[in-house]
Design a protein that fits this description.
Blueprint lengths: L1 H43 L3 H14 L4 H14 L2 H14 L3 H17 L3 H14 L4 H71 L8 H18 L10 H29 L9
Length: 281
């Protein structure tokens, strides 16, 4: 009996706490709605700073209320704070309970992405919006704009990639041309060195030849050898005897002396002779 009484008390306590929680949730929800309403009024008067504060209060009371995040995101969007707007819209889409709420959240997510020039991502956001409301003409129109923008960006990226590839190819070709030019210069230098060496060798070879084109060393060698052989063939005078050349020189000297003596005698004879007035026939 005692256990039954304790069980009944436990159930009653749980129900009481549950009812209190529900009451608190309802109270927080009502307060959140009131704060959102006030924030909407401030935003309609372009007082986005105060509106932002009220939206934040509403979200703190009821984090899962999509409208709070959605309206706060719109206030950020109007101020040009697209990054914060994007974050709040993602939260709104996450906690949205109806397709209408999801459609609005994804639609504005697409708008924020378009502002940030992220057209490809915007296309996907508008697709999600249309999945939740296929008859939304405004979303369909924005989807078409985003799709065209994404295609243009892709074409531009392809052109830039092609240009980069072309520049890389040109740089590669230039490097190859420079390499070929350096190789050609090295070959020309080697050829010039070989030519200079050939000319030097030719000059040295010409210096070693005589006017007839025969090697000087060989000719001189042969000539010296020939003269040496001829000198060896000549009879060599014996010790104490005159050589034939010496004898020839002596004879020539004796003849010259004899001629001088005869010329002197003839001169003496001429001095004593009488001068003729007539010529002999």
């Amino acid at each position: 009996m005692k256990r039954i009484i304790l069980y009944i008390l436990a159930i009653y306590t749980v129900n009481a706490f549950s009812q209190n929680d529900e009451k608190q949730q309802l109270k927080d929800l009502e307060q959140a709605k009131g704060l959102v309403y006030q924030a909407n009024q401030l935003a309609s008067n372009d007082n986005y700073i105060d509106a932002e504060m009220e939206y934040r209060k509403a979200i703190s009371k009821e984090p899962n209320m999509a409208v709070g995040n959605y309206n706060l995101a719109n206030s950020y969007y109007k101020k040009g704070n697209f990054d914060e707007a994007f974050y709040r819209l993602q939260q709104a889409a996450k906690v949205a309970k109806t397709k209408e709420e999801k459609n609005k959240a994804y639609h504005n997510i697409g708008n924020v992405l378009m502002q940030n020039k992220k057209c490809k991502e915007a296309v996907e956001a508008f697709k999600n919006a249309l999945r939740n409301n296929p008859t939304d003409e405004e979303t369909r129109y924005n989807f078409a704009l985003a799709k065209q923008c994404a295609e243009d960006q892709q074409d531009q990226q392809d052109q830039e990639d092609e240009k980069k590839d072309q520049n890389d190819q040109n740089d590669e070709n230039k490097d190859q041309d420079d390499k070929n030019e350096d190789q050609k210069e090295n070959e020309d230098e080697n050829k010039e060195d070989q030519k200079d060496k050939g000319d030097q060798d030719k000059k040295e070879g010409d210096d070693e030849k005589d006017d007839e084109g025969d090697p000087k060393d060989e000719k001189d060698k042969d000539g010296n050898q020939e003269n040496k052989d001829q000198d060896q063939k000549k009879p060599q005078p014996k010790p104490g005897q005159l050589s034939p050349q010496q004898i020839k020189n002596l004879l020539e000297a004796m003849n010259n002396q004899e001629e001088k003596v005869q010329e002197k005698i003839n001169a003496e004879k001429t001095k004593g002779a009488k001068v003729r007035s007539e010529k002999d026939w």
